[in-house]
Amino acid sequence: MSNSVDDLQVIADRVVAQALHGEQIEAYVSRGGETAIRIYEGELEHFVSAQSEGVGIRVIKDGRTGFAYAGTLDPAAIAEVLADARDNVSFGTADEFAGLAIPDGVAQIPQKFWDEELASFPTDEKIALTKELEKLTLAIDSRVRVDEANYDDGWGEVAVATTTGIRESGRGNSCYVSVSTLADDEEETQTGFGFSVGDSPKEFKLQRAAKEAVERATRLLGATKPPSKRTTVVLDPYVTSQFISILSSTLNGENVAKGRSFFADRLGDQVADPRFTLMDDPTNPLAYTATDIDGEGLAARRNVLIENGVLKKFVHSSYSARRMNTVSTGNATRGGFNGSPGVGCLAMQLVPGYQSQEELIAGVDDGVLIQMVSGLHSGVNPISGDFSTGASGMLISNGTIGAPVREFTIASTLQRMLQDIVAIGGDVDWLPSRAHGMSLVIRDVTMSGT
Amino acid sequence: MNTRLDAPMVDPEVIARVLQKGRSTGADFSEIYVEDKRTTSAGLDDGKVEQVTSGRDRGAGIRVIAGDTTGFAHTSDLSERGLLAAAEAAAAAAKQGDGGVHTVALQPVFRHPVNTIKQFPDTVAKSRKVELLQRANQAARGVSGAIVQVSAGYGDSIKRILIANSEGVFSADEQVRTMMRVSAIANGDVGMQTGYNSLGHTIGFELFDEHDVEELAIRAAEQAITKLKSRPAPSGAMQVVIKQGSGGVLFHEACGHGLEADLVGKGSSVYRGKMGELVASPLVTVIDDGTMAGEWGAIGVDDEGHASQKNTLIENGILTDYMWDYIRARNEGRKQSGNGRRQSYADLPMVRMTNTFVTNGSENPDDIIRATDNGVYVAKLGGGQVDTASGDFVFGMVEAYLIENGEITEPLREGNLIGNGPQVLKDIDLMGNDFAMGGPGTCGKDGQGVPVGDGCPTLRVKSMTIGGTAA
Predict the structure, then answer these.
(1) A379: Cβ–Cβ under 8 A, 6 or more apart, which residues?
(2) A85 with B54: Cβ contact below 8 A
(3) Are B151 and B256 within one domain?
(4) B237-275 exposure pattern, b = at least 16 Cβ within 10 A, e = fewer
(5) Is the CA virtual torsion B297, B303, B309, B314 positive or negative?
(6) What angle (nearest 5°) sits at the alpha carbon of residue A249, between those of residues A246 and A252?
(7) If chain A, 450 residues long, is cut into consecutive pieces of 10 residues, what is the mean pLDDT of each piece?
(8) Is there a domain that residue B4 lies in?
(9) In a domain, B1, yes or no
(10) How many CA atoms are closer than 13 Å to the CA of B203, on its beta-carbon side?
(11) Do the Cβ atoms of B416 and A72 come within 8 Å?
(12) Which of A235, A315, A382, B27 is the most exposed place for a label (fewest CB within 10 A)?
């Protein structure tokens, strides 16, 4: 298989070799594949098997940038992409900070991204284990139906080369299973989900995924709309992960440079409760989004962003770093061959506390455990900091879980929520997301219901 | 000319052989979807045109159905060899007994153009596209010195598709979209506030003859400036007046998704088993219309080759039909409704909305506000999200005001509103006569995004929960 990555590197090198005088060129070449299996009522509902490939070319000349891509590695198409990218250069505004990354000597930390067992895992067994997940889920509670049980895996190979001396390639694969549930009680239906990730299907914890999917749905049966009030929320690890992910845009050096972050000019300030230490560490192999290089081909690295509540650092690509007169933190992001690099956190992690969720709840007199949130994209504005999401979960009184509640919102501002953190759990969950999760307790949040 | 008829994207004889290969393992249905999409986009931020991007995506998806099992494979290799390999992979996934040879008789290509394109965007110089961004930047910054940042984006796409299946369907469409968006940030005593406005239609570059870029930008900037005086939104249940246009998102979430036959079929919609029943206030008539010329969700044929059509989903409060794709319609022994859509050749089709809207009532919109003692006026909705099984849904208010004693007063900060679909539909007590479509939207489902339109007249919901922080 390494031969195939080599052939991508050859394609990237060939593009870069065509650079004319005064031109910077970056070629990003990738190929990938996926398998998606869906089981419904014991039968295979669909089986998707597919491969795709493509190239993205960035050309920079006299401070102007042009970009083009195509979803093919056909030589004629690649030539057309290079011509388009060159043509696009002339329409950009000259920017003294525009440019490609330059190798900075930071060493990559080797990690294992390719699992041979997954690569050779038989299709029949993938189907069988997805059926097993559906069966396990149905066996737990007679009120529960399974909406769908899914198996998904993917592999990718990438090579990048630049006229500035970047030359990197690699490959990786991953897999997960998920199940969505419906719990019925007379006229009412509630939903739940569970999932499991692993380097290979052998690592799946099917029973745990089934149990979580059943609990999430059945716990909400009989849920009512709570009264509106200020209260303490305990975020489930899955919700905490989504909350932390939102902070990425406020810590993004390009947003800081362009006046789009409320953290601009706050370096060194106490922006969060002293218990809160947030880092971005894609070198941690436990992180789902762990990587050895960033979207520009620089080594990925560990960056402490907020330490004991004090804002320490923003994340940068080579472009945002040049603008802010600093160095790249290895945080260029890239969606694939069809996009040019941006800036962002790669694998966000909080320093955990030591208490379990149960222990955290025991310390809450009056509050609500938030199991699910919805509308993060529509009710959270990371520029103003306004935070408002739909939610469902369980009331907490005198340290004990009580009645289920739904159809309410929780609201505050991101700035206040960071200061209002009262406890961080030790129940770290490495979720399939850009941020891990653990239980997080935040006081003085407005719950809006009746 | 409405469409430019080029040579077929793939030779019909090759298509026939690919469809035949798809059924070689005993499948009862095979389909090929070929796509060739060219895009141009340009972005301006911080006063600079950052980058012009050209994109090309081309490939084919082969779907094979055997009984209740669907096999799917896609490829970016449009040669006969590449297509046959994909057909073989899809067929292997949906194996059922013996194959045999099933020849396919394809009809002449079917076209059903609904949009009129005057100026194809690939015939327009990139410099003219970039110039729009600069005009928007200047206009937005000109509104006030408090505007501290502006970003603008331009995008166009020309997507040619061809769909053929073993039942003889052979359809083609050319889908052109042109859009522009502007975001502005204002800085003041309450910190930074944002404004956003977008414009998009299934037409060509003539979009900018018909709409004023400066006006689009000024509206975005004004929205941000207005919010500098905003107070926290209230918390709790109140009367909510939704302005015409973008308010259509409410129906997309409150009932649109729940009326998709795939969700209904699996019993994961609150609207299952409710056909013929009163599910909304009699003031409510909901229509999904893929033929609505120029609107963001308008398509000639859907991504299964079926002609787009206008479907009444709820009529005077009574549920009249769900939306259908090929598989779900086949299972129920009925006709599909032109709602089988997919994000690209790399995705399986499923039931999706097109342009979803609520028709006019009889109230003057000013009277609706005057009739409201204490509530919230949502002038612009953001996105939303729904749990179709419970019916609970949220949507964001991007621009909203307090209504006090029948008058619009103070601007409010952003937040979500939450409600339960069937309950909110019943709680609509006033329907305006000022119907309008909203801006271009992207609807996400099962990881796929497709362009959709939404619309409604000004209307009132007698009680919804506002997710703010003020007591």
Answers:
(1) A386, A387, A388, A389, A390, A409, A411, B382, B394, B396, B414, B415, B416, B467
(2) yes
(3) no
(4) bbbbbbbbbbbbbbbbbbbbbbbbbbbbbbebbbbbebe
(5) negative
(6) 145
(7) 74 97 97 94 91 94 96 94 97 95 94 94 94 97 96 95 96 95 92 94 96 96 95 97 96 96 96 98 94 95 98 98 97 94 97 97 97 92 94 97 96 97 96 95 96
(8) no
(9) no
(10) 17
(11) no
(12) A382
Q: Which residue of B has its CA nearest to A56?
A: B55
Q: Of the residues B197, B227, B257, which one is the last residue of a structural domain? A: B227
Nearest C-alpha of chain A: how many angstroms from B255? 16
Q: Please give the Cα distance from A173 to A114 (Å, whole number).
A: 5
Domain hosting residue B370, numbered range: 235-467
Q: The CATH number of the domain where A20 resides is what?
A: 3.30.2290.10
Nearest residue on chain B to A228, judged by CA atoms?
B236
Tell me the backbone φ, ψ of residue A127, rounded to 5 degrees: -65, -45
How many domains are there within chain A? 2
Report the distance separating Cα B10 and Cα B14, nearest Å. Answer: 7
Please state the domain count of chain B: 2
Instruction: Using alpha carbons, select from A231, A302, A314, A308 the residue that is nearest to residue A266.
Output: A314
Judgement on whether residues A146 and A260 belong to the same structural domain of the protein: no
Q: What is the C-alpha separation between B259 and B337, in angstroms, rounded?
A: 12
Q: Are residues B270 and B212 in the same domain?
A: no
Residues of A in contact with B148 (CB under 8 A): 259
Segment B25-69, tens digit of pLDDT: 889 999 999 999 999 999 999 999 999 999 999 999 999 999 889
Among A217, A242, A266, the domain boundary falls at A217
Q: Are B63 and B70 in contact (CB under 8 A)?
A: yes
Q: Which of A47, A77, A225 sits opposite B56 (nearest CB)?
A: A77
Eight-state DSSP code of residue B91: H
ipTM: 0.91
Same domain, A174 and A81: yes
Are residues A204 and A246 both part of a single domain?
no
Tell whether B285 and B197 lie within a shared domain. Answer: no
Note whether B209 and B244 are same-domain residues.
no
Q: Tell if the CB–CB gap between B192 and A45 is shorter than 8 Å.
A: no
B206 contact partners, CB below 8 Å, separation of at least 6: B118, B119
Question: B99 pLDDT exceeds 60?
Answer: no
Residues A241 and A182 in one domain: no
Residues B48 and B178 both lie in one domain: yes
| Cβ B184 vs Cβ B203: under 8 Å | no
Q: Residue A147: list chain B partners with CB under 8 A.
A: 266, 268, 389
- The conformational region for residue B333 under phi > 0 = left, psi -120 to 50 = alpha, else beta, is left
User: Which amino acid is residue B377, in one-letter code?
Assistant: Y
What residues of chain A lie within 8 A of the CB of B56, using their CB? 69-72, 77, 80-81
Give Dmax (Cα) for chain A: 73
Task: Determine, for residues A338 and B385 on separate chains, whether the beta-carbon distance falls below 8 Å.
Answer: no
Which residues does B447 contact at the CB level (< 8 Å), separation at least 6? none
Contacts of B413 in chain A (CB under 8 A): 384, 386
Range of the domain at A42: 2-217
Instruction: Kindly compute the dihedral angle of the four CA atoms of residues B402, B406, B407, B409, in this order, to the nearest 10 degrees.
Output: -20
